[in-house]
Structures are given as structure tokens and as C-alpha cells.
Amino acid sequence: MATETDEESEISSDSGEESLPTPAEELAAQKREERLRKFRELHLKRNEARKLNHHEVVEEDKRLKLPSNWEAKKARLEWELKEEERKKECATKGEDYKRVKLLEISAEDADKWERKKKRKNPDLGFSDYAAAQLRQYQRLTRQIKPDMEEYGKQREQNGEEFYPTSNSLLHGTHVPSKEGIDRMVSDLDKQIEKREKYSRRRAYNDDADIDYINERNAKFNKKAERFYGKYTAEIKQNLERGTAV
């Protein structure tokens, strides 16, 4: 009997049957699977973050290589393209582009642009000759473009005397270049040409006949002359000659 039992146990062990896992082993396996799943998710997120960081680094490098005013230039070019398209559309429809554009501007925007324009270039008018001279000086100095190469040559040539003091002998010995003289002459010609276009409306004409006693009477005479001058011209001439009947 003993030998048969041993033989049966040996047969059952050799048959390859496995024992069922215990609850503790199942819980450990579930925890292991959960940890592996989280690890895979973290690994995917790390790869995604690495790709995004690389993309941002490449884009930032591109932005740094662009000029500082690239965004403004880009916006300006896009606006110009839109304006060109609008002009073509207005041309095909037979409409005036400037008129269409002005119709789209609100009164509030127009007032805002006008105030901005006045702040940028305010018309202070004439207060005195000193203020007018200062404005002219500032306008001329804004147009000056210094020649840095010539500046460096003169500084090397004159040394410390290039920065004169009260005891310096170099003061007053500067000889302007031919280009500087030509530039000054051309600027003076432009000023003369601009000044010739000015026309000031005279309040009173010194050569005109005085037929009024005050300003109010002068305005009344001008109004009467405008309406009845052609009818009373002969009578007025006869009165002036003394030949009136």
C-alpha cells in the first residue's frame, strides 16, 4: 500500500499541475502591474516634454536670430498686403479707395489720431524770435549726420587739443570741408525756396484809399462794395473828381 501511494504522489508531481496563487501573491502582482503602467506613462510624458523643449529651443533660436523689430515689420507687411488687396477690390468695383477707407473710420478714432498727431508734431505758433530760432536750430540739428571717420581722423591728428579749453590755441582754426560747405549751401537754397512760397495775408493795404473811420465802418464799406460796387462806381468817380451833378 505504501509503495502505491508513493507512486501516485510521484505521478501527480510529474503531471505538471501548478498550485493556484494565494491572495497575497495576486495583490503583489497587481501592484507590480500598476507600477509598471505608471512608469510607462512617465516615460511617455518625459519623451513628449523632451520633444516640446527641443521645439521651443529651436523656435527661440530662430527668434533670436531675427532683427529686433521683426514683429513690427511683419505686422506692417501684413497690413500693406491687406491694403493692396483692398485697393484691387475697390478698383474692380470702380470705387474710390480713399473714400471707402474714410467711411470706415469712426469719429472717435479720427479724433484720437488727430490728438496723437498734435502731440507728435505740435504747432506752437510764433511766440517770440528766441523760440522761433530755437525751433529752427532743433530742426537743423536733427538733420545732421556726423561723419565718424572724419571725426576720428581729426581726433587722432589734434590729440588733446581736439577738446579745446579756455587755454586752447586750436579754437577758431577749424576749416570746414568742401562737402560741408556744399551741404550748407544746399540747405540754405532749400530754406530760400521754402520761404518764397510763404504768403501772408495782409490785414490792411497801405496803398488802398481810406474811405472809413473805424474798423466796423471798413467792414460795412467792403460789404456794400461787394453788392453795389458795380452800380455806384461811376457816381463815386464823379464825386472824387468833383464833376458830380
Describe this structure in words.
This protein is mainly alpha-helical and 245 residues long. 70% of the residues lie in helices and 0% in strands. It has nine helices and no strands. It has helices at residues 2-14, 23-65, 70-93, 97-103, 107-120, 129-142, 148-158, 178-196, 215-241. The longest helix has 43 residues, at 23-65. It starts with a helix and ends with a helix.
List keywords for this structure.
single chain; 245 residues; mainly alpha; 0% strand
Mean pLDDT: 79
Bin the helical content: over 70%
Main beta sheet: strand number and arrangement? none
- What would you call the quaternary organization? single chain
- Low-confidence runs of at least 5 consecutive residues: 11-16
SS content category: mainly alpha
User: Using only CA atoms, what is the Rg?
Assistant: 48 Å
**How far is the N terminus from the C terminus?**
179 Å
Please report which band the strand proportion falls in: under 5%, 5-15%, 15-25%, 25-35%, 35-45% or over 45%: under 5%
Could you spell the SSE succession in H and E letters?
HHHHHHHHH
Number of helices: 9
Annotation, overall tally of beta strands: 0
Summarize the topology.
Elements: H1 2-14, H2 23-65, H3 70-93, H4 97-103, H5 107-120, H6 129-142, H7 148-158, H8 178-196, H9 215-241
Short description:
With 245 residues, the protein is mainly α. It has nine helices and no strands.
